[in-house]
Amino acid sequence: MSYVFAYMKGPRTICFIAAIICCVSCSRGPVKVPATTSRFHAGEVWTFHTTTNEPSGATLTIARVDFDPQLGPIIFVSVTGLRPDTWRPYHFMPLSEEALGRSVVALVQTNALLTGDDLSAFEQFHEQGRQGVQRGKLNKCFDITVAEVLQKLSQPQDNKPWWRFW
User: Fold this and answer.
1) Domain interval for residue 81
2) By C-alpha distance, which of 116, 52, 51 is closest to 78?
3) Which end of the chain has less Cβ packing within 10 Å, N or C?
């Protein structure tokens, strides 16, 4: 009998150690993996919730989707169809995926990529924004809806540039 007990001691010890290793490894929290995909894609045109004084036909086009390790997808949009006095010459803005999700209403078109002067203006905007983020003067994206951004832009800002909001 003692021979059988001594024989079983080795496998029990191995099982015990394996159980401890499993418990310790499972007790760690999940590792947060940065998002590398988005439900939004460049070239999509969406209608979005607007303020009451904006035309209902306003749309936004997704110009680019970048990915940040901490923030996840950052979606750059081009807004068109607003009142001329609302948007001044700037019509691009970076949004978090969550903020854009709260903004959009319906997908209108796909494969409507920016071209020509719009593409050149966007590339210039993107580069200036990237440099501002690197210098620590700008945040990477808005976390509020497009309508909320437009509402803030329409309020007097004491001669501060509009990009101070992000």
Assistant:
1) 45-155
2) 116
3) N
